[in-house]
Specification:
Blueprint (H helix, E strand, L loop, with lengths): L6 H11 L6 E7 L5 E6 L13 E3 L2 H12 L2 H11 L1 H19 L20 H11 L5 H10 L29
Antiparallel strand pairs: 1-2, 2-3
């Protein structure tokens, strides 16, 4: 379950991404440093365009760690594992269904595509790691593998320094979405 997005969270995510976040609806996971590292997004952008991602990895250090795994060939290796390990393939298919159930609870899109290549491909470790962080261990086996291989990206402290004019006691965001 995602937390409400505070103005401070929105600011941190914008600094992490280097742009204003789109379709932001909640903080789905916090890094051990306390900052958001996964956000939940609406199934559609503000203009109605389908946006099936749902969970978005925002921490640049976590993103870099996932990219290193992709560059090292983890996706190809884990794709091969899906083809030869029926239990892994079944668990990955269940992760896909769990992902779709979360998305469909907000809005049903015209596509059954989910994230990261689920249910039969390993396409984006960023999306799969984000799903694992948001859903918790044991839900997405490929996302769990990605997290195990990403190391402790948070070990050097927060990735986004506070904005110089950040107001510590700002009122909660009344909107709750979009930006």
């Amino acid at each position: 379950m995602s937390e409400r997005v505070s103005p401070q969270d929105r600011d941190v995510v914008a600094r992490q991404l280097g742009r204003t976040p789109r379709a932001l609806t909640g903080v789905a996971h916090r890094c051990p440093c306390g900052q958001p590292d996964v956000v939940q997004t609406a199934p559609r952008l503000e203009d109605g365009t389908p946006f099936p991602t749902v969970y978005y990895l925002t921490c640049p250090r976590a993103t870099a760690a996932a990219s290193r795994l992709e560059s090292a060939g983890a996706m190809k290796e884990w794709q091969a594992d899906l083809a030869t390990d029926p239990e892994l393939a079944a668990a990955y298919a269940r992760a896909h269904e769990a992902f779709l159930a979360t998305r469909d609870a907000v809005d049903v899109l015209p596509t059954r595509a989910s994230a990261g290549g689920m249910p039969d491909r390993v396409k984006c470790l960023h999306a799969l790691a984000a799903h694992s962080l948001a859903a918790g261990p044991g839900v997405n086996p490929i996302g769990d593998r990605a997290l195990a291989g990403m190391g402790e990206w948070w070990s050097h402290g927060p990735c986004a320094a506070p904005a110089p004019d950040a107001a510590p006691d700002a009122a909660p965001d009344a909107e709750g979405s979009g930006s």
